[in-house]
Design goal:
Layout (H helix, E strand, L loop, with lengths): L6 E2 L3 H6 L3 E5 L2 E6 L3 H10 L1 E5 L4 E6 L3 H8 L12 E7 L5 E11 L2 E6 L4 H11 L6 E4 L5 E6 L3 H6 L14 E6 L2 E6 L8 E6 L4 H11 L5 E3 L2 H10 L35 H13 L4 E7 L10 E4 L2 E12 L4 E8 L11 E5 L2 E8 L9
Parallel strand pairs: 1-3, 4-14
Antiparallel strand pairs: 2-3, 4-10, 5-8, 5-9, 6-7, 7-8, 10-13, 11-12, 12-13, 15-18, 15-20, 16-17, 16-19, 17-18, 19-20
Length: about 375
């Protein structure tokens, strides 16, 4: 297999048998959509959707000093994470630039699972290996050890409950527990990237097809549909969740991106990027950087990443993500804009779409919040 050939997940043949439109994403052949992306999006908002996320990068960090290593390598307080819980965090460069945003699961006393974005999995793995020098801990590339399936939407618990005796009622958001789903051993995590309640199931690749089929059958009465990456993007956009390469990049610190809260200066010991991040925090306090805001179109034209945000004939920001919102029924975007134009309701803001300044309303993120 040539290095240019995309990688395929354990569910590849199944996706094709379902008529999926496939696309290259971060070197993986992934389902973009199976039918209508709008129908898939609405199914997740109102019923449930089933996703293949096996392209995500799993890295195991184990050993007596695993927690100390992760506290040194990442900006979050990982040592303070209780067994069975998960934390959203970031890994930064020495200069404070964001290498990736991550979820870290504490599976045991000295066992952690770091989940990186597909496009950054190798970068994160290499950084963790490099930063592990001097720590009594092992960093292991587990990207081929897992398939990852996600059930997301209001009916997801009911569907999953019919296949497992795991205590889903007691499983909090951002927690994970080992269990059996449809006879398959799995790490069952209450996490997701859609703005809905849902679960992510880490299983061995050889169990992926039988688990997908069991979930599909269990979800028939609840309106579960297979979902591709296209609706995953509109769901996370409506929920105001950042995407690496769009809202986050190595040229931004967490403070530039409005995610300063994930940086924990109070934790013990030094961590990579600490000095630069302390400076970034001071800069942000003294002179606020551009602010990540929501934009809702007054017309029908869809903004795309890289389009200029304008006000009074001046460029005041840049769109990072944009798409038609099935839930709102109009185009939406996330954008970094100057603080003077960041307040919700700010008038006179537009997006330059091929030379025309289309009017947009500035709103607070997220665009959509589920009713708990």
């Amino acid at each position: 297999m040539s290095s240019t050939e995309p990688r395929r997940t354990a569910l590849d043949a199944l996706h094709r048998s379902l008529g999926a439109t496939m696309t290259d994403f971060a070197g993986w052949d992934m389902p973009l959509r199976y039918g209508s992306e709008r129908d898939e999006h609405n199914a997740v908002r109102t019923r449930a959707g089933l996703f293949d996320l096996s392209h995500m990068g799993e890295i195991a960090v184990t050993g007596p000093r695993a927690a100390a290593l992760l506290d040194h390598a990442l900006v979050g307080n990982i040592g303070g994470l209780r067994t069975g819980r998960a934390r959203y965090t970031m890994i930064c460069r020495e200069d404070g630039g964001i290498l990736d945003d991550l979820i870290v699961y504490r599976l045991g006393q000295s066992e952690y699972l770091v989940v990186a974005n597909a496009s950054n999995a190798r970068t994160v793995l290499d950084a963790l290996v490099e930063r592990s020098a001097g720590f009594d801990a092992e960093v292991r590339d587990d990207r081929d050890a897992y398939a990852l399936l996600a059930v997301q939407g209001p009916a997801s618990q009911e569907i999953l409950a019919s296949l497992t005796d795991a205590d889903l009622d007691g499983l909090k958001y951002y927690a994970g527990l080992p269990g059996t789903v449809a006879g398959v051993p799995a790490l069952i995590a209450r996490t997701g990237y859609t703005g809905e309640d849902g679960f992510e199931l880490f299983v061995k690749p050889e169990h992926a097809v039988e688990l997908w089929q069991a979930l599909t059958k269990a979800g028939e009465g609840a309106g579960l549909v297979p979902c591709g990456l296209s609706c995953r993007d509109t769901l996370r956009l409506e929920a105001g969740m950042p995407l690496y390469g769009n809202e986050l990049s190595a040229s931004l610190t967490p403070f530039d991106a409005g995610f300063g809260r994930v940086v924990k200066f109070e934790k013990e010991g030094d961590f990579v990027g600490r000095a630069a991040l302390a400076e970034a925090a001071e800069r942000a306090a003294a002179e606020p950087p551009r602010v990540l805001v929501g934009l809702v179109a007054e017309g029908r034209r869809v903004p795309r990443a890289g389009y200029a945000v304008v006000a009074g004939g001046e460029v005041i920001g840049e769109v990072t993500s944009g798409a038609p919102s099935p839930t709102l029924g109009k185009p939406i975007a996330m954008a970094y804009v100057d603080p003077a134009h960041a307040a919700p309701g700010t008038q006179g803001v537009g997006v330059d779409i091929r030379g025309t300044h289309e009017p947009y309303e500035v709103v607070a993120l997220p665009f959509y919040k589920r009713q708990k």
